[in-house]
Protein: Probable periplasmic serine endoprotease DegP-like
Amino acid sequence: MVTRCTQFLLILCMLVSASACARGLPDLTDLIEKNSPAVVKINTVERAQAAGRGVPPQYRQDIPEIFRHLLEPRRREQRPVASMGSGFIISEDGYVVTNNHVVDGADQVIVTLPDRRELEAEVIGTDPSSDLALLKVDAEDLPAITWGGSDDLEVGEWVVAIGSPFGLDYSASAGIVSAIGRSIPNESQENYVPFIQTDVAINPGNSGGPLFNLKGEVVGINSQIYTRSGGSIGLSFAIPADLARDVVAQLKEKGRVDRGWLGVGIQNVDRNMAQAMGLKRPSGALVAQVQAGAPAAEAGILAGDIITHFDGEKIDVSGDLPHVVGRTRPGSEVTVELMRKGRVKRLDVVVGALAGDEEERQQASVNPAADAGGRLGLMVDEIPDALKQRLGVESGVMVKEVVPGKAGAKAGLRSGDIIAQLGFDEVGDLDDYQRIVKGLPGNELLPIRFFRGGQPTFRTIQIEEG
Structure:
């Protein structure tokens, strides 16, 4: 009898404890019901055109005229390539935020509202560095989200994602913030986003969807997952809302994003370096290289300095520095605090503009030597030896800038890509590139092979000439 009473009491205690735990969990039903109408599904179509491989132009003259038409490359019909993602409405008049990688290279972007309306969207602007894009649909009186403050987020805080994973419309998932300020370089090795890490279930199709706090405010935009299977394993990364708001405002105002630039190569400080430089613990960003003529060089920053504060913000690890420099407006004068030979030093720096801003684009466009990127609309240069080793490439040229509307831009090339083949010729160096480009035929689809983030990619490129 005692045993049965004991078992009953144990079961009762377990039920009471479970009930208490359940009462402590957040009720997300109102949050999801209120905010789902502002979440949209995004479908994109890219018209990929394939072409058969013909005889290189330099060999055609050796073929009798009567047979040449048989050896011309055969064009195939365009094959639409579809992809999908998520997004959310930020204003009643139809502005929509999503990830850049959701719409990158798309010829058509369709936004599907929760009421099943399908609206073609205009791409107002994109920012590959932050993986954000701003769209506009022709509609009025749409439900819109409320922005929240991502700087106030704390590890352990509950967050909710709404999106279309695997095309399953308007799915919700919840979890907690598991870390903040994660530094994850993108395909171009840029590192301007201090990601929010969560254990919310994020899967393909969630990209570009909102991450809410329990107040129903958007505190992040879901962007990446870490996975070896292609599905969620409990590590997802969101772009902070405070950064996203600034990027979106610039895209809406001028269609581009201007970022601060210091002009240094940096690395982390290890224990031995900290001891040698008089630091109590490893912290800061060790300056490994200073670019000649860059804002850092003009201010007197030297290789071997350890930057510990930038404009009053503490730099704990090297990845913190690009975050704070990138969001500083070009032309601003800020104070940099650093350690040099065991002593604290403060320098005033006038922050420059990261390559790709409007001023530099204008300078490039009026430079006769640049010729607006030549026939392909690409500004290219030799690949630094250190970058060759890191990416595992031995030859080619690096894209420094892509001129909008020209062949390179239409082929989907980006700054940082390494061109290895043009047409049917391998690109060894800058001289090879210039020679090959000069001989490329116009108005004909040609293969181009390039590396992005160390991964080889084949596409087609066409020089449109009258």
Residues 34-136 form a domain with the Thrombin, subunit H fold (CATH 2.40.10.10). Residues 357-371 have pLDDT under 50 and may be disordered. The chain has 13 helices and 28 strands. The radius of gyration is 26 Å.
